[in-house]
Amino acid sequence: MRIQTVTVAGGGTLGSQIAYQTAYAGKHVTIYDINDEALTAAKNRLQRLDASYQGDMHATQADLDETHARIQVTSDPNTAFGNVDLVIEAIPEVTTIKTDFYHLISGIADARTIFASNSSTFLPSQFADQTDRPSQFANLHFANQIWKHNTAEIMGHPGTDPKVIATLTTFAHEISMVPIVVQKEQPGYVLNSLLTPFLENAAYLWGEDIATPQTVDKTWMIDGGAPMGPFATIDLVGLRTFFNITQERQGDNPAFKKTLAKVQQMIDDGNLGLESGHGFYTYPDPAYQQTDFLA
Amino acid sequence: MRIQTVTVAGGGTLGSQIAYQTAYAGKHVTIYDINDEALTAAKNRLQRLDASYQGDMHATQADLDETHARIQVTSDPNTAFGNVDLVIEAIPEVTTIKTDFYHLISGIADARTIFASNSSTFLPSQFADQTDRPSQFANLHFANQIWKHNTAEIMGHPGTDPKVIATLTTFAHEISMVPIVVQKEQPGYVLNSLLTPFLENAAYLWGEDIATPQTVDKTWMIDGGAPMGPFATIDLVGLRTFFNITQERQGDNPAFKKTLAKVQQMIDDGNLGLESGHGFYTYPDPAYQQTDFLA
């Protein structure tokens, strides 16, 4: 099967980016969300993405118009899920919400439909048996700013049909993603398996007063040739998200006590990273993007 | 004190790069090594560095000639250490060799001379008391390809005089390094504190058949904007060095058993990385440097 029609369930930050990118690549897309308010918010997100595609992808006005023309929105489950090749689930990371959702669409979807979850935190085996088609279920995970960070991590559970993985891999290529096939279930897929401990280790160097954030970032940028260091990345991720993940992983580890307290203090002071304009750097025009930063 | 004269002890790969960079920046440099054979090898290394400085740093023939004219070599300890502002020790990472060396130079060096160790693995507190001047002793650590990876990690022990740290910081700037001041003793300084677990985590994903090396590298390059991924970096570090470090850190960890066995197999097969022309990639022109790698 070749995927031509896609329903994205959930029109939040990632959901609207997935819908936009998929339609931009020529597929017909439906965004499903629970009510008109959520759908209006989704439509506003789609409008705001135009500027990014114009700036970063050199999209013409015709490209944008065609993209929007290929996207419809609905809060009617039968319209959304009754006759579609692929459902990409991008709803809240709450077990009961996802369970209810998979029960709902299992009663509606055509036998051919593949179900894929964009979940960052759940493994596909945790929901496969909540669907009526475990062999047609896998995770398909996108990164924020999908048009630039164009990886699609594809991860099945032990019961996923290899043909479904192949279909999702082809689909990823067709929507200009680089498919990242994760061959076994792995929390964090590839990217977060590397990034999460990397950011933690960097934060520890600052938390224990071993080196300043700027010193750490300079080191990584010079010796690794990277465009930004780990503290700039934490600003991008957001201090609150970084705190929650690190608390979950290292909350019981005494070695991280000082580090977590310092991150908490920054959050209490309103230094949330890029989103608040202040974090380890001040935005816009953070120091690490200045030409003299590595001098 | 401002550093004008420097003796680099040990004319190996790093020692000769440190000497060359220091002389290139205008300082007067002596390379000390144990016998004429070692000194001849050092001189050959210095000659071979010319091409890198011409290619990467746009050095003129006059720049190269002046650099070589500022470097002398000797195996006589009195000539090397009797009257110099700074000694940079870049000798083998063997406790007894370093201990003997610090005993030797303590009996020769002028009272003003600062001793600095380029050691990757030892902390300055491990040798400070083997010198006659613990307060004038710190680590000063350079990366391979010093002219491009121009960090100088500066790390004192608790007894190092802050003025010595300041002098070394100024010296680092003067020889076109970015000083990376490590404020407390930290094994691995900044760079290896981040890089070592990062490479380990990447190797684990391959060792456990979760993702291929090329998949992992693509992910890091796309989502982090880096010019190379962790497996390309392991090739550069060398599989043997990577194995030794990982064995030391994770040899007792059952989670790394398969990974270590797979690295060992690659070494047994002669796939040592860049140095042997084969590792996770084939050299020259490895796949990750091709334009279609991220397509």
UniProtKB/TrEMBL annotation, chains A, B:
Domain of life: Bacteria
Species of the source: Secundilactobacillus paracollinoides
Domain 3-hydroxyacyl-CoA dehydrogenase C-terminal: 188-283
Residues under site feature: Important for catalytic activity: 141
Catalysed conversion reaction: a (3S)-3-hydroxyacyl-CoA + NAD(+) = a 3-oxoacyl-CoA + NADH + H(+)
Gene Ontology terms for molecular function: (3S)-3-hydroxyacyl-CoA dehydrogenase (NAD+) activity; NAD+ binding
NCBIfam families reported in the protein's UniProt record: PRK08293.1
Protein name listed in UniProt: 3-hydroxybutyryl-CoA dehydrogenase
UniProt feature coiled coil, ranges: none
Pfam families: 3HCDH, 3HCDH_N
Pathway stated in the Swiss-Prot or TrEMBL entry: Lipid metabolism; fatty acid beta-oxidation; Lipid metabolism; butanoate metabolism
Domain 3-hydroxyacyl-CoA dehydrogenase NAD binding, chain residue ranges per copy: 5-184
InterPro entries, A to Z: 3-OHacyl-CoA_DH, 3-OHacyl-CoA_DH_NAD-bd, 3HC_DH_C, 6-PGluconate_DH-like_C_sf, 6PGD_dom2, Mito_3-hydroxyacyl-CoA_DH, NAD(P)-bd_dom_sf
GO BP annotation list: fatty acid beta-oxidation
Key words of the record: Fatty acid metabolism, Lipid metabolism, NAD, Oxidoreductase
